[in-house]
Each structure stands twice: as C-alpha cells, then as structure tokens.
Fold these 3 entries.
Entry 1:
Amino acid sequence: MSSSIIPALLFFSIIITSLADESPIGADYRYSNCSQTFQCGNIANIGYPFWGQNRPEYCGHPKFLLNCSGQTPEINILSQQFRVMGINNMTYTLNLTRSDYWGTYCPNDYENTTMDYDFFNYTQNTQNIFLYYDCQPVYISPPITSQSIEFICDNTTNGNSITGYYVTRNLTSVLNLSAICATNVIVPVYQGNAQYLESNLSTSNLLGAIDGGFGLKWNASNSECENCVWSGGQCGFNKSTNGFICFCENGAHPSTCHPLITARVKTFDDDRLSASSCYLFFILARMNSGSGWAEPNKRMPSQVESNLGLMGLNPARPRGLGSGYRTFSIILIAIAINK
Ligand SMILES: *[C@@H]1O[C@H](CO)[C@@H](O)[C@H](O)[C@H]1NC(C)=O
Ligand SMILES: *[C@@H]1O[C@H](CO)[C@@H](O)[C@H](O)[C@H]1NC(C)=O
Ligand SMILES: *[C@@H]1O[C@H](CO)[C@@H](O)[C@H](O)[C@H]1NC(C)=O
Ligand SMILES: *[C@@H]1O[C@H](CO)[C@@H](O)[C@H](O)[C@H]1NC(C)=O
Ligand SMILES: *[C@@H]1O[C@H](CO)[C@@H](O)[C@H](O)[C@H]1NC(C)=O
Ligand SMILES: *[C@@H]1O[C@H](CO)[C@@H](O)[C@H](O)[C@H]1NC(C)=O
Ligand SMILES: *[C@@H]1O[C@H](CO)[C@@H](O)[C@H](O)[C@H]1NC(C)=O
Ligand SMILES: *[C@@H]1O[C@H](CO)[C@@H](O)[C@H](O)[C@H]1NC(C)=O
Ligand SMILES: *[C@@H]1O[C@H](CO)[C@@H](O)[C@H](O)[C@H]1NC(C)=O
Ligand SMILES: *[C@@H]1O[C@H](CO)[C@@H](O)[C@H](O)[C@H]1NC(C)=O
Ligand SMILES: *[C@@H]1O[C@H](CO)[C@@H](O)[C@H](O)[C@H]1NC(C)=O
Ligand SMILES: *[C@@H]1O[C@H](CO)[C@@H](O)[C@H](O)[C@H]1NC(C)=O
C-alpha cells in the first residue's frame, strides 16, 4: 500500500464516522416517525409490528393495529377483540385475553376463539379450557362433582338463568357434556392457571384463569425486521407490495439499509466487527476498481464539509451503528499505519 493512500484512508474513515453519526435532521420522515415507539393504554414503548394512536400505519404490520381508546390496548384478530395485557418484543409474544370474556365467564354471545395462524400461534404454555352453556343439571360422580364444575349465567335481557359447566381438559370419553349442553366454547388460558384451577375447582379460579390471559406468539416478518434494525433501519410495511420494508435514514429499502449487512446477518451471529470487515473489503474493492460509492453514500459530497465541521462539536454519538462504523474506522487507520 503506497503512503499516499494513508491520508485517503484517514479521510474516508472520517467520512464514514461522520455519516454514521449524522444527525436525524434530514433523515427520511418515515425513518424518523417509525423510530418513535408509542404508548397505548397502560403499555409504553410499543414498536413494530404494532401501530395506532400517533404511530402511522406504515410503521407496523396491517394486522397489528392497536386500539388505544381504553385503559388496556385491544387488538382485533379475525374480527374478535382481545385485550392486550403484555407485549414482549424479545420473545415476540403477547399476553392477552378475549375482550368478551374479560371479568366474566358469561359472554353475551357464545363464540369460539378463532386464531389467524398466518401471523399468530399459541405459546407452548397455553392450553384450552372448555365452557359448556345451557346445560341440563346432572349428577356427576366424585372426584369431579357437578357442583365443583358448575356455574350460573344470568341473562339480563330476559331474566332467565342457565347452568354451565367448565372443564380444563376434554372429558368427553368419561363425561359427554355435549350431550347435556346446548353449546360450548373453547377459551385458551395459561397452563399454570389451568393447573391451579384443576387443583382447586371454583368459579373464582375459573375467572382468575380467564383473566390471567394466554400466550400468543406473533410472526410479522420477525427475522426481516431483525436484519433491518441491525442495519440501522426501522421496520415498516409497504401496503402496495403487501410486504416488509426497511426505512433507513436515506430512504426506504426492501430488506436492509445496506445489502452487505444482510450478508453478515446470514453468515455470522452477532459480531459487529465482521460487518465492519465487510465494509472494509467493500470500500477497498471500490477504491481499487475506481468506481463510485454505493447507494448509501451518494449524498456524501454535499455533506462532507458540514459533517467535518460538526465533528468536533458532536462528541456524544448516541446511535446504534455508530460504534460499528467507528470500529471500522479504527481498523482502517490501523491498516494504514501498519502498512
Ligand atoms: C421493546 O421493548 C422495550 C421494553 O419495553 C422498549 O424499551 C423498546 O422500545 C421496544 N422496542 C421496540 C422496537 O418495540
Ligand atoms: C411524520 O413525520 C413528519 C415529518 O417529521 C410529520 O410532519 C408527520 O406529522 C409525521 N406523521 C405522523 C403520522 O406522525
Ligand atoms: C376500541 O375499543 C373501545 C373500547 O375500549 C371500543 O368501544 C371501540 O369500539 C374499539 N374500536 C374499534 C375500532 O374496534
Ligand atoms: C338472553 O335472552 C335473549 C332474549 O331471550 C336472547 O336473545 C339471548 O340470546 C340470551 N342471551 C344469552 C347469552 O343466552
Ligand atoms: C366450538 O368448537 C367446538 C369444537 O370444535 C365445537 O364443538 C363447538 O360447537 C364450537 N362452539 C361454537 C359456539 O361454535
Ligand atoms: C402452533 O404451535 C404448536 C406448538 O405449540 C404447533 O404444534 C403447531 O403446528 C403450530 N401451528 C402453526 C399453524 O404454526
Ligand atoms: C374431545 O374428545 C372427543 C373424543 O373423546 C372428540 O370427539 C372431540 O372432538 C374432542 N373435543 C375437542 C374439543 O378436542
Ligand atoms: C357426545 O354427545 C353428542 C351429542 O349427543 C354426540 O353427538 C357425540 O357422539 C357424543 N360423543 C361421545 C364421545 O360419546
Ligand atoms: C380454592 O380457591 C378458593 C377461591 O380462590 C379459595 O378461597 C380456597 O381457599 C382454595 N382452596 C384451596 C384448598 O386451595
Ligand atoms: C398476563 O397478564 C395478566 C394480567 O395483567 C397477569 O396477571 C399475568 O401475570 C400475565 N402473565 C404473563 C405470563 O405474562
Ligand atoms: C413467518 O412468516 C413468514 C412469511 O411471512 C414465513 O416465511 C416464516 O416461515 C414464518 N416464520 C415462522 C417461525 O413461522
Ligand atoms: C411500495 O411498493 C411499490 C410497488 O413496488 C413501490 O412503487 C413503492 O415505492 C414502495 N413504497 C416505498 C415506500 O418504498
């Protein structure tokens, strides 16, 4: 490597660093808007794939609109309303319960829980309980007694009461409740709550199990979003392609803010240095071939001066990829000095 290349490398490393630390002023408005998480009811810091309130639709997945008008967020899945009591964006799981069963085992209409398996599935620790309505009172022999699994629903419209039975597992082979009840409804609950109910059959524990919710795992282009975020982007959705989109400071991209980052994510586990190395080879290759800069750096010339000027005034460098780019800069400088 000739000595004349050293100032060039230093120059480029400064540019890369300053680009990485660039202020969000002038960043794509969708990138800026989608960087904001939102508060919905009593849950704060909600991000992709959810949207609603002041978080625009393109920042989330169409199926993940949250209704924030109440104290607890609500989500609509296959025309059924669910109260969202917890969102875990590390495990992609929701803790939710059916809105029509909130605080009651006597809903106005008898509807089974339906699930959109294209985007959701129950977690391993979720199981069904079975609620039977409009039953003829019967004698059920111990250890399970008719009394222990019985509940009463009052119909406020006509003033009548109906008898119901609940079971935590399918007892049809020993006790065919379908034969004595007009209808039944399947409600998912956490396994632990179902077991507790089983160990102590009571309507208050039944209510506790239902209100305790159940676990639901979501899939809204999860891995695509991970790659996008890793590359410094914000996840979103393009309604016209009906597909994932990655909003970057310099605009929208189909998957990540830089194609090479995808290569890294597929090849390595979680090592920023590797990506930095990718950039190293990428830039050296570009320099050797004498061609121009790749897309992300197209706007560079107009910004070089102001960024260089800002460098000294901007020591904080708060954002994610900055350190990765700085590592790269250090590698570049180290190579330049070594040669
Ligand atoms: C994920 O959850 C954490 C903790 O609630 C929150 O700080 C963060 O903003 C969330 N991120 C996204 C992208 O939703
Ligand atoms: C998105 O960002 C633009 C520009 O910052 C702003 O004018 C607009 O109100 C934002 N949209 C939403 C829905 O927050
Ligand atoms: C939002 O939730 C409220 C109750 O919290 C409900 O009255 C309203 O109908 C819901 N809106 C939609 C669009 O589902
Ligand atoms: C309550 O009674 C009304 C009027 O008879 C009936 O239409 C409705 O289906 C009943 N509700 C339930 C939950 O059984
Ligand atoms: C709920 O599903 C069960 C099992 O598939 C079925 O037997 C029952 O009739 C369904 N109940 C309603 C109200 O549709
Ligand atoms: C949902 O998860 C269960 C395991 O919890 C699995 O057996 C089932 O195949 C999954 N269903 C879909 C549609 O992914
Ligand atoms: C319960 O078991 C019976 C057979 O014992 C079966 O016919 C029925 O479909 C099962 N019901 C549910 C909801 O799994
Ligand atoms: C339970 O009762 C229903 C209604 O009488 C009947 O259709 C069904 O075959 C019975 N199931 C079993 C397992 O006996
Ligand atoms: C069973 O549950 C009821 C209501 O939750 C409670 O009052 C009672 O002490 C429990 N009994 C046992 C043996 O745990
Ligand atoms: C689910 O939410 C309910 C109600 O807030 C809470 O009591 C329960 O501990 C939560 N369960 C899990 C597994 O997060
Ligand atoms: C998630 O959904 C995508 C399609 O949108 C599918 O290709 C992928 O296999 C799904 N992943 C899981 C774990 O279900
Ligand atoms: C969404 O997809 C359409 C069709 O491919 C494309 O024209 C449009 O530019 C995309 N939107 C964004 C924000 O990239």
Entry 2:
Amino acid sequence: MATLLVDERDQLFILDEMLEIDSLCRFPKFAEHSASEIHMVLTEAHKFAKSELYPTNEEADRTGCIYDPETRAVKFPDCLREPYEKFREGGWLAISDSPAVGGFGFPMTVATAVSEVFYAGSFYLYGAAELSHAAAKVIEKYGTDEQKATYMTRLFSGEWMGTMCITESDAGSDVGAIRTSAKPNGDGTYLISGTKIFISAGEQDLTENIVHMVLARVVGDPPGTRGLSLFIVPKYLVDEKGKTTRRNDVFCMGIEHKMGLHGLATCTLVYGDSGQCTGYLLGELGKGIEEMFHMMNEQRLLVGLEGLSCSSSAFLHAVDYTMQRLQGASVYPSTSKKTGSVAIINHPDVKRMLLTMKAYVEGGRALAYFTSYCLDYAGVTEGEENARWHGLVDLLIPIVKAYLTNNAWDITGMAIQCAGGYGYCSEYPFERLARDCKITAIFEGTNGIQSIDLVFRKLIRNRLVSFRHLMSRIDQTIKSANGNKHLGSYAGTVKEAKDGLEKTMEQFVKWAEGERALFLYAKASPFLEVMGDVVLGWLHLWQLTVAYPKLMEFIANKTPEAAQDILRENKTGAFYYGKVLSAKYYIGTILKRTVGKLEELKADAAPVLDVFDESFTG
Ligand SMILES: Cc1cc2nc3c(=O)[nH]c(=O)nc-3n(C[C@H](O)[C@H](O)[C@H](O)COP(=O)(O)OP(=O)(O)OC[C@H]3O[C@@H](n4cnc5c(N)ncnc54)[C@H](O)[C@@H]3O)c2cc1C
C-alpha cells in the first residue's frame, strides 16, 4: 500500500477524472497552473506528511502539551518543532492564496486535497497551523492596510500563529452571550477584558507571536450577537517597523485535560487581568459575528476534512492490519480446502466493514472536494452563475462539517473493530484516531447547531433556491447514469432517495409555516444525516459513471474468473474495480437504509418535544 494516510490514487481520480480540475485552469485566475503541477504538489504533500508529520503522532499524543503555571507558558511536544519549521519554510499554508500575499494561487480544491493529507499526517500540527490561515483571511478581507502589513503576511507564512477566540464559560453554542468587553482607549485602540475558554493553540511555543482574533462587546453595545465586534489581540504588541515590543496582557491560565488531541493545547485565556490588554478593532463595530463567520466558514470546511482525514487514515490502517493478521479458515469454497488460517481481510464480515469504510471515505472525499470546487467556481464567475455556486457552498458547508465528522466517529470505531483487541490498544493508531476525531463533531459549532443552520437558514430562509439547484444537478447525473444500461438500477435507487428527500423537504416547509414548526428543531439532525446520505449517493453515482466504462476497458467480455485474474495483475484495473464496488455497495446497500430514515423523518416528533426533565428518570 502506497500510504496509510490518504489514498493518493483516489484523490487523483476525484480531481482529474471526476471534477476535471484542469478545466479550472482555463480561467485567468488559475491559468498559470496545470494538472501536472497539481499532481506534483499533491505528491510533495504526501512525501512531507509521511516523512515529517506522521512519525510524530505517537509521541505527541503520549507527551501532550504541558502548562507551566509559573510562567503561564505552554510547551508543545518537542517532536512537532522541527516539522513545523519545515512546514512553514515550504510555504504550505498559503498554497491557494494570491501571490500578492505570498501564496501560490492554486485552486481551493487542490488546497483541500493537500489539507486532507496534512491533517492525516498530523491533526495536532496542521490543526494549529490552519488557524493562522483562517485569521489571515479575515484580516485580508476586513483589515486596514496597516493591519495587513503588520499581521496578515506573517500569518499566511506561518511565522506567527493565529487563534479564534469565541467560547466563554457561559457562551458555548450561545455566542450572543459573550461577556468579554472592549473599552475605547480614545486613541483608536481598545482595552480588552474577559476570559475565553477552550482556545486551540491559545498559547504555544512554536512561534514568537500569537495573533488572537477575539469576539468582544464594546461597552454599551447591545446584547446578543448584534453587539459583538472583532478585535486583533496580539500576544506581543508590534511597533511601526514590525518588531515585537511589549508583552500584551493576555495570559494562559491553564489547559484542558481531554479525551484526544493531546498534541494541540486547548487553553483558557484571560485578557486584561492587569487592566492592560490592548486590542485593535478589525472591520466595523458591531459586525464581529459576520466577520467571524468568514473565519468560521473556512474552519467548518476544514473541520469536515479533519473528520475525513481521521476516517481515511483509520480505514487504510485497517486494510493494512487485516492483510497481516491471520485468523480462521476461509469460508470461500475455492480456498476452504486449503489448511491453515487466512488473513482476516478474507472473511466476508471483515470485508463488509472495510468496504463500508471505503465507501464513506471516498464519498466524503468527493463531497469535500466538490464543495471546494464550488468555492473555486464562485471565485471566477459572475452574476447568476456566481450566486448559484455560492449557494451550493452555503448549502453544503454544514453537511461537510457535520456529516463527515459524525461518520468519522463511526468509521474509526469500525476500524477498531476490524483490528479486534489490538484495535483497542495504544500499540496501534486506531484508538488514538477515534479519540482525536470525536472533537470534530463538537467544535466549530456542534453538529446539532450545524443541522439547525442547514434546515432553517440554508434551506427554509433560502426558499429552497440552492436546494433545488442541487437537486437538478443530481437529476443530471441520474440521467447520465441511465444512459448506461448496466447502471440504471443504481440511478433508480439514487432517484428514489432523492425524491424522498424532496418530499420530506416539502413536509418540512409545511411544518415550518404551521403549528408544527417545533418539529423541525427535533428533526434537524436526522434530516442532515439523510441529506448527507443522498448527496453521497449522488456523488457515488457520478463516480460510477466515470469509473465503470474505464473498468470495462479491462474486463469487457471476460468471464468472471478471467476478469479476476486480469485485475489482480493490473493496479489501475484493480483501482477502478474497487471504485465501482464501493459506489455499488454504497448505493445498493447503504443508501437503501436511507429510505427507512426518510420514514423516520415523517414520524411524529411529539415524544421528543413533550418529554420533560423529570420524565427521563425514575
Ligand atoms: C478541544 C477543543 C477545542 C476548541 N477550540 C476552540 C477554539 O479554538 N476557539 C473557540 O472559540 N472555541 C473552541 N472550542 C469550543 C467549542 O467550539 C465549543 O465547545 C462548542 O461550540 C460547544 O459549546 P459548549 O461546549 O459550551 O457546548 P454547549 O453549547 O453547552 O452544547 C452542549 C450540547 O447542547 C446542544 N445545544 C446547545 N445549544 C443548543 C441550541 N440552541 N439548540 C440545540 N442544541 C443546542 C449542543 O448541540 C450540544 O449537543 C473548543 C472546544 C474543545 C473541546
């Protein structure tokens, strides 16, 4: 197996054969790039992740980050130091950003493929580093020239690291409850005061300076999210020449001891304990939440990728493990007469688990890359077409975030199951991946909040405009699959699930307008799951229409035995065979369950809505 992180061949299939990424290179924005250059970048990312990032995981997980209460400093695992420097020198953070800010100008789709590889390499290091990119993007969009000159380029290059400071003890999902305050100093700066909790990489020793992006309320501004503004709060203040000067009054008061993500500190930060924390307003007063959404949207896509990368790595490790582990005799008639144990990958129940993981990983990858591809098209088109691409991005982001991260927990769990008792032990990476991935369903807006956002904002408030556009794209793929007589039944199953989703949507709209609007709150999460299932069904059908004819080039008119012999000898043929089977398995088996889930969505929500505190227990 080429790698245990991300299947590069599958990435190339999605980029080249499914999305035809080189079609983006015809737009002036990407004209300097070519498919071969994109392949080169991806290959380099794999090399870096395999040689520099992946070897650090065990130690980083075991040692974790260490807080020193004397100095209020946080020490990241030593093994991450050198890889971070090399990562920074490689300019990896800004590969899809404009050369004007030190980037390479590649399409976002390419950056997404690279991010998947890096997250799989080290969730800890890349998870911390990516926050700098998100901070740089907000400053690029809303910052003054001075703020851009002082912070943005250094964040894009990774010289300094950024953070996203939203959460407080009483303001988790309820962002409007934020109490951190900002008082004007009279010279354009603000005095920041308050405590943020759970801040990823809020304190670290990998970079000289840290640039905190802090949501706070200017004294006297209205309550709720409307009254929030966004501030740049550097750990060290910076003079006109760009040199760091005074230590700002923002200190780490402790780090969390958590289930996973040990190599990435989660910090409590206190601002203005000595009344001297300086902050600089970014953008407009009272527009903080809108501006932060810019950072959060990017982060939500990336958190989906974090989940996907854990799934991908768990799956590939499971394939590797099950090829080595010998247990039990084969049940296949052709081999059962041979004595001795076989590798467990030969047992149908193990194959079932592996194929399930493969189908979810490959479908999830197609979903994440397609969403980035929409972002790329939104960056090069105009007018109505542009609005359609943006609409698709808005609609798909909560699904990428929540669906891929919910699945990550199931898939890493299934990988543990594949490896049996060894899967449960820390000698193998399975249990670490399960521990690490769980947070992705929680941070960056819990998956429950993502589902509510999908149903109320992205669907109903949008009057289903983007939903209908997505459905029409699905129809086109169904039509194209129906053109191949061997794929018709798969097209039929996707159509059935898609029609069911549309009917449910009509039902939701009726509920939203009537007395049953509360049903939607109770059913938002299962709805997101069903919509994720249908979207994955569509993406698998799309992949099937591409992979099936290519597979046939190898095995058309061959007997099943001859076909098996050919495919076992031919890597490319075997890849298409695996691709076709995962699509067929997803649509023909997994998507069948969605029909039942659609029934669940029609059901009465009264039990959920009517149950109250005392009735949960005896
Ligand atoms: C390891 C880690 C890293 C983090 N990194 C950062 C960071 O860098 N920056 C940052 O600002 N924050 C960070 N967070 C915080 C994270 O974003 C929050 O934990 C998350 O937003 C949920 O808030 P909460 O923990 O207060 O849960 P709560 O808001 O208390 O939610 C608990 C449960 O109630 C549900 N719930 C709450 N409100 C509603 C509602 N209105 N409707 C329906 N269901 C609801 C939630 O979906 C969830 O299931 C991090 C957290 C962790 C653990």
Entry 3:
Amino acid sequence: MSTKIAVFGATGGVCLAAVKLLLAEKKYKVSVLVRSKEKFENLYFGDAIADDKREFDKNLEIFVGDVYDEDDTNLKNVIRGSKMILSGLGALPKISFSLFPSRWFQFSQPHICEETGKIILKAVESLPVEERPSRIIGISTSGLDHDVPFLLDSFYKAFLHVPHQDKAELEELLTNQTLIPEVILVRGTLYTTGPTTRKYHATEGKKLGYTISRNDVGHFIFTQCIEGDEWVGKKPLVTY
Ligand SMILES: NC(=O)c1ccc[n+]([C@@H]2O[C@H](COP(=O)([O-])OP(=O)(O)OC[C@H]3O[C@@H](n4cnc5c(N)ncnc54)[C@H](OP(=O)(O)O)[C@@H]3O)[C@@H](O)[C@H]2O)c1
C-alpha cells in the first residue's frame, strides 16, 4: 500500500515542488488541502492544462478547504491515515512604499503559522491513534538563531520580526507537543523562484548563504525529510 503524505500549503512553491517529486515517485499517496482547486491544478499541471494533456494521478487526493474553516471534515480527511504531515502554510506580506521603513512590510496574519499549527494538532488529536501521522515537517525560517550572515540577519531584524516571531512560536509548539513523535523544522534562507539545482547545503550550524530556491527546499524536504530520517528532531538550515 502507498505511504500517505498530508500536505498543507500545496499552492506555495516549496510544498508544490515536494508534491511533484512525491507523485513522480509513484509509491506515495499525496493528500492536499487547498483553498482553490483551480489554482492548485493550474500550478500542478501547468501548460498541460492548456494542451489538455493533464493526467489525473490516482495517487493525488485534492480536498478543498480553509484551515480555519469551522467544519474541519476535509482537514481531518487530509490527515487521516497519513504517515507524515508537511505544512508550508504562511501568508505573504503586503509591501508598501512609505517614508517609514518600518511600514514597508505589513502582515495581516501575524500568527498564521502558530494558529494553523494548533488547528492541525487539534485535528490529529481527534483521530484514533492508528490513524495519526508519526512525523510532521514544519516549514520554519532561518534567522531565528543568528544562523545567517550579518547582512541577512540585519534585514530580518529590521523587516521580518513579525513572521519570524510567528515561526518561533510554531517551532516551540511543534517541539513541545507529544502527539506526533517525529518533528523536523526546515529553516530556509530567502526564497527565490529559481530551478532545482540540488546544489544546496543543509546544516544545523551557521552558513554563509543568503538564498535558496523554493524548488530546492522542496527537493530537500522530499529527499532528506520524507525519504530520509537524519533530520528527525532537528532544525536544518537550507541554503546555497
Ligand atoms: N519567502 C521566504 O523567503 C521564506 C523564507 C523562509 C521560510 N518561508 C516560509 O516558507 C513557507 C512556504 O513558503 P512558500 O513561498 O512556498 O509558500 P507561500 O507562497 O507562503 O504559500 C503559503 C501557502 O499557504 C496556504 N494558505 C495560507 N493560508 C491558508 C489557509 N487559511 N487555509 C489553507 N491554506 C492556506 C496558501 O494557499 P493559497 O494559495 O490559497 O493562498 C499557500 O499554499 C511559508 O510558511 C513561508 O513563510 C519563506
């Protein structure tokens, strides 16, 4: 039987890349919760939609819903029976050009990672023990432990304090919970839309890289966090 992986944030670049790699492998069943099926299909199938060459993969299960929905039936369906949860939920900042640099990045959902982390854990708790996942891979960020070069650290402190506090709270939540025994917190540097190079560093120490493509973070998650066990209980920094 295929191993089921539950994915939240599958329309984001990192999780989408991981989903594509998982489904290409043919031994996984992937279950995603997305707010727009159309958006996910456009991203997943790309040009194949226009050419009408899309092939629905029998190993892909798409549930439509918002993690915050009061009716959490679909959220539970995504998780039920999965071996692992991958969550890359997040909210992009609104960027505005103000005379005051502190107003350049505005965050309308400052606690989204912590809040959705709690919602996911509550759903896991409601499932019978045999239907619960044994691993959760949470997408966090670099910059929480002075693990990046000085310039990037300064940029983070000046502009990204709010989402970084949220990621720190997500890390604390997942690290201290006892429902899911294996936790991996993936800390990427600044994301780019570049290709999959496979030439990145993954480490628990400080690294001099500034960026990493979403595709390479997805590749790291698939090859080393889902297929491999070496990062369980760790917070790998992924960067070029
Ligand atoms: N940008 C960076 O440099 C950087 C660096 C390190 C870490 N990160 C973090 O890495 C993670 C992944 O980033 P990414 O760029 O791949 O993705 P992203 O563009 O931040 O996408 C976020 C995902 O979360 C989904 N989402 C948000 N709220 C939701 C809700 N209430 N219910 C269901 N889905 C919801 C979005 O769905 P919709 O498509 O429906 O909006 C989207 O799929 C994020 O947590 C991000 O903060 C980013």
